[in-house]
Design goal:
Blueprint: H1 2-18, E1 21-26, E2 31-35, E3 41-46, E4 49-53, E5 60-62, E6 67-69, E7 75-80, E8 84-89
Antiparallel strand pairs: 1-8, 2-7, 3-6, 3-8, 4-5, 4-7
Length: 110
């Protein structure tokens, strides 16, 4: 029971982390503004994206399956080089291992 409860709490924590991520779809040449996006991750699910950040001379190009974390305060512009779907939000953080895995010293029912 303790193990099942711990698993449930970890799953709730993981699910809560996905609530801070939005999925966006753009047609080719569409744009999306990320305001105050420093620390947010942009991940291309489908299509190619071009990203530029305020006060940053770099251009970032993402293909499907690639992502980047915005590292500048201010506005970031995401431009669809092709029809695209991407996510933007807080990068996923693994849940801390508060419960030992079975087979690694865990003892239940003792």
């Amino acid at each position: 029971r303790v193990f099942q409860c711990a698993q449930r709490m970890d799953m709730e924590t993981i699910m809560g982390q996905f609530d801070r991520t939005s999925s966006v779809s753009l047609k080719q040449r569409g744009t999306y503004r990320v305001v105050n996006g420093k620390g947010q991750k942009v991940f291309s699910v489908r299509g190619d994206l071009w990203i530029t950040q305020e006060h940053d001379h770099r251009d970032i190009v993402l293909k499907a399956g690639e992502g980047t974390v915005l590292d500048k305060p201010g506005v970031a512009l995401v431009y669809a080089l092709s029809d695209a779907t991407f996510t933007v939000g807080t990068p996923w953080q693994p849940v801390s291992a508060s419960v030992p895995a079975i087979g690694h010293g865990a003892r239940f029912g003792a």
